Amino acid sequence: MKESTKIFYGWWIVIALMAVSGSALALTITTFNIYLNAFTKEVGLSATQFALCSTIINITVMLFSPKVGKILQQHTKKALLIFLTGFCLSYAAFSMVTHVVALYVVAALFGFFSTGLTFIPPNILVNRWFIEKKGLAMSIALSGSAFFGMLLSKYITYCIQYFGFTFAYQTVAAMMFVGGVLLISILIKDSPESMGLKALGADLTHSKLEVSSKSKLTLVDIDPKVLKKKPFFWSMLAAQFLVGFVGGGIVLQLPVYLQNTFGMQQAASFLVISLGIMIFAKIILGWLYDKFGCLVTTSAVAVSVLLTCIPFMFTTSSQMWGLGLMGVMFWGVGNCIGTVTPAVIASKTYGPNHYGEVYGICLRFQTLGIALGVPAISMIATATHSFTFVWIICSIFTVLLFGLYAYGLHGSQKYRTPIYKTSYLSMTGNANTIAIASEAKS
Questions:
Q1: What is the mean pLDDT of the chain?
Q2: How far apart are CA 19 and CA 151, in angstroms?
Q3: How are the residues of the chain apportioned to helix, strand and coil, as percentages rounded to the nearest 5?
Q4: Which residue positions in the chain have pLDDT lower than 70?
Q5: Per-residue pLDDT, 217
Q6: Coil, strand or helix: which one is 191?
């Protein structure tokens, strides 16, 4: 394929990632608890025992994400196929669980394989294929979680109602496997150079890099062992932890809050509205990150989270549906604090040589935040018999995480350098030498 092709091949990579990683994210987060009532009733376990699966999945992701990132960095396509196979087999295995111990073993395996199929592949491949329009490409790749979340939630609910949860688990796993193998085998390519292409924007000259006034096309390309000694990196990791705490906590507890406040039917309508907005918000935010940079766009996302929490603080009855509608609409944008924001900021901060491992470390802190945030928010709501204090805490943490990101982005500037040439061996295990330019707005 020649470089003059009208549609840059990297966009096909993005479409494949949107389907594969988007479906994996939807099955791991958005739709996971749909099975709760049917599963616990059939198997004879409590809701608390089933809910612990999410904690086990998050802990597994936290433990293995740096190693998985390193593996995907070196053997991207082969590793994707292996993780896809394990993901689908472990997802189908939920249908055969008859004991709580088996449930937790399957959850741990599912968590491990989901690590290599959800957030890390889009980060590695988009960072490798795009220099210009990186934010837009990343956001499109991650937007699949909302779109496929809507489709799969309807399909899974229908299957549970008419055929049982076993049929739902097994058919979803089969469809995911067949579709994923086809997309990865046909569309995914490890790098532009493997096709005789260059990353989008790789033709930027040295002078353009130096005179660019709107963006600094430079990245922090430091070995993780050295990076761990830099204060700015720990500031970014602290922000990543709060992203998980706030974003993950709200995502998993929002349905409970909406049902308790507005009833099940109204809550379902609100959630559909939020997901619909989220699909478009993710794509628009990617463009905004490319256009205005990390700091300005992240501030807009943080404000959206605040405008989610503040209306909910003052909502005291189901009659105040206007405030509830305002909150869920802003959450359609604010939800991106846990998906688009950390992914784009990382891709515009860290260089290609160690990106898989570095992003794995970032994901570890985000997952730790989710693992602690979900039960913490639940316990606060239970102890106070109200979500009001929850929204206050989330507002405070949102302001704090933005401050930590701002400090980290500012502190990273002195470590950023233009990257023109790097060894392909360090990125994918191939000995070829390639030319790479990478950008990071701040």
A1: 86
A2: 12
A3: 75, 5, 20
A4: 1-5, 204-217, 419-442
A5: 65
A6: coil
